[in-house]
């Protein structure tokens, strides 16, 4: 019996070694991980299936809502204004943002194939960072547009021309691409000696840094600085814009004018609060206060929930968008019946 027990232990040791070698590559007397795996959400299959169903429904709602808003703005000449141009860009960013993360997340929840290659993880991190930072900058551009419309209406047409709007959108996408490339290259230039299990739903920056070998304090400082520059700076611009807007609204003589000015800003303010609130808590809080459970909940919120809520917020609180969406749905219904 003792001999059988020793053989069993020996076999388990071999299996563990094989598993380790499957996610690592021996290079220069060090283990360099080439394969990662996401941790299982729960050992209870029903819980994983329930979360899979909820995330899938929210993902489909987000894709449908954002695609409809982008289509409504594209096909309706009345909505070819700076505010709706930026809103269409925001919808496209949200589609890319969710598609870079959710499909792999869904696969990891219910499938046995929870692994992801080092190159796949780097690609996911790049696109996630690219779309997230671009959205930060675009939200600041949208706040500036509202500031110009309310505080400087006589110069609005010239200062927010089609060319200026295109430049602001290109700068937003360009900053996101640059930061995404820089951060991804910086993090994946590190050595990963193991373990190779990511305690998260996707390849986000903090959980990947936690797997790196040696001292990563410089990398963590770089991530924090980038977060300050690319999250806090646009947020401060948004706060400054809305501070000026509020001051201008308070001195308006007409109550109807005040109500209309505030109604055009309320949707954007709500989206900013949802996006920046969850993002700031994730990336700007001290490392000591991070916990895998909290980080996962926040990740679900800013990757799935906010992307689903944005189309609802803009369509419910904006009569022009609502009318354009109703027109598209009505035309689709007529074509179906024909």
TrEMBL record:
Where would you say this protein principally sits, based on its record? membrane
Its topology with respect to the membrane?
A: Multi-pass membrane protein
Give a single Pfam family match.
7tm_4
Q: Where is the G-protein coupled receptors family 1 profile domain?
A: 65-314
Q: Which UniProt keywords apply?
A: Cell membrane, G-protein coupled receptor, Membrane, Olfaction, Receptor, Sensory transduction, Transducer, Transmembrane, Transmembrane helix
Could you confirm whether the keyword Transmembrane helix appears in this record? yes
Task: Give the SMART domains listed for this entry.
Answer: 7TM_GPCR_Srsx (SM01381)
- PROSITE patterns from the UniProt entry: G_PROTEIN_RECEP_F1_1, G_PROTEIN_RECEP_F1_2
Q: What does this protein do?
A: Putative odorant or sperm cell receptor.
Highest taxon listed in the record's lineage: Eukaryota
Q: What is this protein called?
A: Olfactory receptor
Organism per entry: Equus przewalskii
Matches recorded under SUPFAM superfamilies: Family A G protein-coupled receptor-like
Query: Where does it live in the cell?
Result: Cell membrane
Q: Which family does it belong to?
A: Belongs to the G-protein coupled receptor 1 family.
**Membrane spanning residue stretches:** 49-74, 86-106, 126-144, 164-182, 221-240, 261-277, 297-316
